[in-house]
Amino acid sequence: MRQFATTAALAAxxxxxxxxxxxGLATTDHTTHKPKQTVVAKAxxxxxxxxxxxxxxxxxxxxxxxxxxxxxxxxxxxxxxxDANTQITDPNVIxxxxxxxxxxxxxxxxxxxxxxxxxxxxxxxxxxxxxxxRTVAYVAAPVSDNAAKAFIYAHESGNNPAATSPNGCxxxxxxxxxxxxxxxxxxxxxxxxxxxxxxASRYGSWAGAEAFWQTHGWx
Length: 219
Description:
Blueprint: H1 2-20, E1 57-60, H2 67-73, H3 78-84, E2 99-102, H4 145-157, H5 179-184, H6 188-203, H7 206-216
Antiparallel strand pairs: 1-2
């Protein structure tokens, strides 16, 4: 009987515990662990890069410089430097300390009229006010215009309308601005008319152009 009573008491206790659980079952409490989520940071979007614009080439005029010597050092022509720098009013007169921009080889420049021809040693001023002065003349030489034109064509292109220099200058008179190539191609008569106008507008005549060429090595 005692054994039966003990068994009955145990059964009653189990019954009471089952009744306390909503499903009538005894459970063990376990901590629930959620899987750890890995957050991957997105790399910032790359901004498109813009090619850097080359810095302009600036030359400071030093004592003894001329447009011709600067042009030779920078592999261009004095005319292109003159056209690119509007502070120059006379290509024969530049001052020490001036900042001159050297145009790129493919830059299109407007033609600037040259001043009237001057004669040597006509420009005078105190040394304190004229740090560097060029008085090289491009007045007409005692030769005919036809002879002067022939001289320039022979020395610039060998009289070849298709001649092209390493710097890209083109044609009978070696135009470096691309105008002759665009307007005339290799047409001799068209180029001849273009350079006739160029010689007259810049130097007054072919004779004046040759006189300048004789001093500078180009025109």
